[in-house]
Amino acid sequence: METIRSRNDGIDRLAGMAAWIRENQGDNGEQMARLRRNLRKARQQELTPRQREMVRLYYDEGMTMPQIGELLGVNRSTVSRTLRRAKNRLYRCLRYSL
Q1: What is the DSSP code (8-state) at residue 59?
Q2: What does the alpha-carbon distance between residue 78 and residue 27 come to, in Å, rounded to a whole number?
């Protein structure tokens, strides 16, 4: 159970970091631009093709997990696990980018 908690904490920290930068964008516009640049780069270099596709469908296209599962012919839980692993990879890449 502790492993799941620590993974979620990492994702929460990344989301919190992005939210803090957004709130303070006037002073940190350069940091936000760097974070966006690094996120685009990390999505291309660090994620598997399957993770990239699911991240694109979920975050960029706004599809739900069941919709993605149906489109790709996998279970919703597979989509959920794949997205979680992708977010963890991205967090590990981006935590030092600021």
Answers
A1: I
A2: 40
